[in-house]
Amino acid sequence: MTPTATLAAIVLLPVVIMMVLRVNAALVFLSLCLGDVLVQFVAPDANSFMSLFMGHNSHTDINTIKLGLLILPAVLTAAFMIRTVRGRVRLLLNVLPAVGAGLLAALLVVPLVSAGLRHNIVDSTLWQQVQRAQDLIVGSSALICLLVLWLQRPKAGGEGKHGKHHKG
Q1: Number of domains in the chain
Q2: Is residue 126 part of a domain?
């Protein structure tokens, strides 16, 4: 598989999954952010923690642990949020955060994949363009995700027509 096709798959696979399963992509984006925080703060001690449960003979690659810490919150969020995007307008609006989450996933996953795959992707011109645009990708995606979440806020008096019965 070419580096461009591999990178496209890393970006587009989560987008397609979120759209087909109608998962709130803004929450998946935020879960990826949480995963990155876990990678930064938990991964350094995770190897010793893993050896407590798996024995001292177990050798787990630190990048595998980092990948797990990065992706697990997003996968769990996606699983719990299946079919939470209702309506055609909200589904169309969900495309932007889904693309942002896919791009963020690529930015965070590629440095953690196997050395051979990473080398092929990192040497491609497409990856270099993505790297140059990473500030724009992360910043605009974060803003879009926040806007989408704010737009989903329940309206005042949202109990609506079916929620209250007049007691008289």
Answers
A1: 1
A2: yes
